[in-house]
């Protein structure tokens, strides 16, 4: 695979070709990926997959008109044809007064931060197979597990580079490793499924396969013989693996595109309290070996840790250059760029700061409530904030998590949910978005 410097040169080369062809401005993305995945089931090898790709995306501007094209054919003839096609498309495109490259004076220059995203490791398919087998074996060894959907292990390396016609060129490499197991407990109509999964930039930081597998088995068995929930207004406690989705609803509502289009339930919320006073939510692109760390954003702007919510108060929108211009503001370094199309926005390592109480205290005064471990469906309205999701989990009775429950719905409005949210102190950094266990009082629970 190419080095980041070579990838950067590829992106800069096609930008130079576009400028030579007469465009007013251009940027390009080069992305290369190589990954190996191994899956097993019931102790036997089921599949070995290897994928490799190299893709180049070019965006050109002719006045206020723009076009984006991409290719996986990197021959000189194909690149010349790509530039020619992009220029022709841009000249026929409608004008967009907000589109354009990032402000030149804001571009990142100098050495990028050292984020330790590439451990340089090589993993053989045989090693991945052994890891997948160990994960599944540990899951199947849990008493009550009756079948398996399989174990898996993966290893990947990626290189990403961006170049612009007004002075930016940069690239970086990442590695990624994953281990998973999914098993079934029980028999017949009473079967329950659950999983365990972990991923890391460094193989040395990956959970042991047996740990991942055992967790999958224990989760599946714990869900056996679920009861029903009555319909009532109850405290709802979100397990961290599902609670992180709440931050996804927040970032969608504060993205520049949603604000510019006036399609957000937080439209007038900048600078006001959207969470309880003790809540802080931060975005840290510089977290060493973080799953979403990056040295610069999708437009070549520098990135830095920031508080999105501080003391409950919303501090910023998430703005790329186009939405920033439309709103009369400055871009925030949250631009995201794929090989095709214009930039959007994204966060990096997003997390809610932990609270001060342990989980046992957080639920200790709940006479009757529900602990959510699974959410089903997409019943969230980003314009109004209305929230309704199918759910499964465990009943909370007299301050303790007791028996499994399933086939019920939780509902509320995200504005109220955010204001009534209380975090526990058990934050762990295991995903791209991380939250501690969180409690929301007064949600509507509708039984099946």
UniProtKB/TrEMBL annotation:
Q: GO annotations under biological process?
A: proteolysis
Q: Which residues does the UniProt record annotate as the domain Metalloprotease TldD/E N-terminal?
A: 26-90
Q: Name one GO cellular component term.
A: cytosol
The protein's matches in InterPro entries, at most eight in alphabetical order, are given as:
EF_Hand_1_Ca_BS, Metalloprtase-TldD/E_C, Metalloprtase-TldD/E_cen_dom, Metalloprtase-TldD/E_N, PmbA, TldD/PmbA_N, TldD/PmbA_sf
Q: Which PROSITE patterns match?
A: EF_HAND_1 (PS00018)
A GO molecular-function term, please? metallopeptidase activity
Q: Where is the Metalloprotease TldD/E C-terminal domain?
A: 234-447
One matching Pfam family? PmbA_TldD_1st
Domain named Metalloprotease TldD/E central is located at: 120-224
What family is this protein classified in? Belongs to the peptidase U62 family.
Q: What is the recorded name of this protein?
A: Peptidase PmbA
Species of origin: Sphingomonas jeddahensis
Query: Source taxonomy lineage?
Result: Bacteria, Pseudomonadati, Pseudomonadota, Alphaproteobacteria, Sphingomonadales
């Amino acid at each position: 695979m190419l080095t980041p410097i070579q990838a950067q040169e590829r992106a800069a080369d096609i930008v130079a070709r576009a400028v030579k062809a007469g465009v007013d401005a251009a940027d390009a993305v080069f992305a290369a990926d190589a990954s190996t995945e191994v899956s097993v089931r019931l102790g036997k090898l089921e599949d070995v997959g290897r994928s490799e790709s190299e893709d180049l995306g070019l965006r050109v501007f002719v006045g206020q008109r723009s076009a984006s094209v991409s290719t996986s054919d990197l021959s000189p003839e194909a690149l010349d044809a790509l530039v020619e096609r992009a220029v022709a498309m841009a000249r026929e495109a409608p004008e967009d007064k907000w589109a354009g490259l990032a402000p030149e004076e804001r571009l990142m220059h100098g050495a990028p931060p050292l984020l330790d995203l590439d451990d340089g490791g090589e993993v053989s398919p045989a090693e991945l197979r052994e890891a997948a087998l160990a994960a599944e074996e540990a899951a199947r060894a849990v008493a009550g597990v009756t079948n398996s959907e399989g174990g898996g292990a993966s290893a990947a390396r990626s290189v990403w580079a961006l170049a612009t016609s007004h002075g930016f060129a940069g690239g970086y490499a990442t590695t990624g490793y994953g281990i998973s197991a999914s098993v079934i407990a029980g028999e017949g109509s009473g079967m329950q499924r659950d999983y365990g999964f972990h991923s890391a930039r460094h193989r040395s930081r990956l959970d042991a396969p047996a740990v991942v597998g055992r967790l999958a088995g224990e989760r599946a068995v714990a869900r056996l013989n679920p009861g029903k929930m009555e319909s009532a207004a109850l405290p709802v406690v979100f397990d961290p693996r599902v609670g992180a989705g709440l931050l996804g609803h927040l970032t969608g509502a504060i993205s520049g595109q949603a604000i510019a289009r006036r399609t957000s339930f937080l439209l007038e919320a900048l600078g006001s309290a959207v969470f309880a006073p003790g809540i802080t939510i931060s975005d840290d692109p510089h977290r060493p070996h973080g799953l979403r760390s990056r040295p610069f954003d999708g437009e070549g702007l520098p990135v830095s840790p920031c508080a999105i919510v501080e003391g409950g108060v919303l501090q910023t929108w998430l703005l790329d250059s186009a939405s920033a211009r439309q709103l009369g503001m400055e871009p925030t370094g949250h631009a995201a760029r794929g090989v095709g199309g214009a930039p959007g926005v994204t966060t990096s390592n997003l997390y809610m700061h932990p609270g001060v109480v342990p989980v046992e205290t957080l639920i200790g005064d709940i006479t009757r409530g529900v602990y959510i471990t699974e959410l089903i469906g997409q019943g969230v309205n980003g314009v109004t904030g209305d929230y309704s999701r199918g759910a499964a989990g465990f009943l909370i009775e007299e301050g303790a998590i007791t028996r499994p429950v399933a086939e019920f719905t939780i509902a509320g409005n995200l504005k109220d949910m955010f204001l009534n949210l209380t975090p526990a102190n058990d934050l762990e950094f295991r995903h791209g978005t991380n939250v501690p266990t969180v409690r929301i009082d007064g949600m509507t629970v509708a039984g099946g």
